[in-house]
Amino acid sequence: MMKTHHLTLILLLVSVFALATGCAGESEPTPESSAVITTETVVTTETTEAPVETTVPEIQGEPELVWSHEHGHPISSVATSGETVAVGEFKVTYIHHLSDGSLMDVLIHEHDVEDMEFSTDGRLLGAGQGYYGVLLTDLTDDAEPQTVGSGHNSRLAFSPDGLHIATGNRDGVVWIWELDGLTQTATLENPDVASNTVTQRWLLAIDYHPAGELLAATHTDGTIYIWDIANQEVVQSLQYGADVTANNTFRFSPDGNGMACAVTESGEQLIRLMAVDGGDAIRDMVVPERVMDLNFSPDGSLLAVASREATTIWDVASGELISTLDQTITPPDNTPKALTFTPDGGHLAVGLWDGTIELWRLPGAEPIAPPPIDMRTPPPLPGDVLFDTGSAELKQEAFVELEALAEELYANFTKATITFVGHTDSRGDAQSNLQLSIDRAQAIKDWFQDWADAKGASGWVLLVDGKGDTELKVPDVDIEGNFLDDAGALNRRVEIEIDTDE
Predict the structure, then answer these.
(1) What confidence score (pLDDT) does residue 14 get?
(2) Distances (CA, A) of 143 to 124, 176, 324
(3) What is the mean predicted confidence (pLDDT) over 33-41?
């Protein structure tokens, strides 16, 4: 009885695509106010979760750029989970592997992505879509995404226990939903916010306290309200006076004892570290102007800040500047827009306004391991590495890669039926794509046949198949019909299927 396996091999593909500039969206108001902390009722919380083990590198030296990749539109948000990083821009989300930046998946949205976050278990990816609610995509199955709320319900945060999601809209109201069934369980509505003008009510960001009992809501009037979720009441309010076009200018520290907020005071842009219990200021750090995003490292020892002209990393305990990333920033074209640490704490993902996503390794951090390759089920051979556009003639540089693959195949399978299956992207007519996919598979089969004959690999039976554009790995056209170069490259591939007697 023959047993079927699917064999593919990752080949490193580094490609840079043309930059498309421009951004659709609404500009938001920028009122000015001085930094004031108003303390109301204070709830002392304790983090009940077990501490997460993280690698905390010693910052001796400068962070190094591991990889970067350019997409077509300004990046609005960046989120990491496990070994992946998700990049939200325009009406598309790209998911890359953290180790080398290789593209893993593409999600097409009907509306612009304004905010994005993974659930605590990494199963769900939430994307805020302006007036059209929050879209929840289950990355573990092919189920249709679900929409949570509406009415510009575009800001979101998952609860630390993984049971709820908080969303916010331009009325300044925060809604809490159970993820199981998407039932609304609480409404956090502040009369002070409701009395503001419409543009002053808008929610810019939502952040859960690590214990899950408190929630911070940042508004465009320059106020951050900290809510006791169970009692649905405000327990602290902070006047930050920062540039309110930035989305994420407030974060709770991972240990739950502190919080960081971007404030404007006496003409200076500051990051103010404060105690959750009482709201007392601990220290101020003067940062480059116009903070766009800030984030703690998983262990809370570092704070990364994306500003209009620089990305900086700070020591939380001392308030000292540790590093400024070696980026060439020319505002506003490639201003750092969003950032987040990787779960291991040793890397920083930075999204720029020009559509570039970067991964930086902190000094002392271990490289992120690539996904393991099972010789029975690795990923496909990328067509752009093997062939020129529209061609079925193998590139000269492809021979070295094919030689290595053939050696590895023969070491694992001395007797097998190997089928090379070609695939194309969705451009062009179906018949031409089908023929190109067959021709490319045939070219690889011919090369392997020559190799097998020369090596005496008589146990192989080599076959050819082509699918054209009928089995796309990812969608490669956005909702408006624009072709996505990165997605198209992922679809242009040759898969290898192996039948053995094992």
Answers:
(1) 32
(2) 11, 23, 42
(3) 37
Which residues in 189-280 belong to E strands, given as ranges?
A: 203-208, 214-219, 223-228, 233-239, 250-252, 258-265, 268-275
Mention every residue, 6+ apart, whose C-beta is less than 8 A from residue 314. 271, 285, 287, 302, 303, 304, 305, 320, 321, 322
Whether the CB-CB separation of 357 and 75 falls below 8 Å is answered with: yes
Q: Does domain 42-361 have CATH number 3.90.25.10?
A: no
pLDDT digits (tens, 9 = 90+) for 175-186: 999 999 999 999
CATH topology classification for 3-16+380-500: 60s Ribosomal Protein L30; Chain: A; (3.30.1330)
Q: Which of 168-172, 185-189, 324-328 has the lowest mean pLDDT?
A: 168-172
Task: Kindly report, residue by residue over 485-501, the tens digit of the pLDDT.
Answer: 999 999 999 999 998 87
Which class for 102: exposed (0-12), middle (13-18), buried (19 or more C-beta within 10 A)? buried
Residues carrying CATH 3.30.1330.60, the chain = 3-16+380-500
pLDDT tens, residue by residue, 393-411: 999 999 999 999 999 999 9
Nearest alpha-carbon partner for 436 in 462, 427, 17, 16: 427
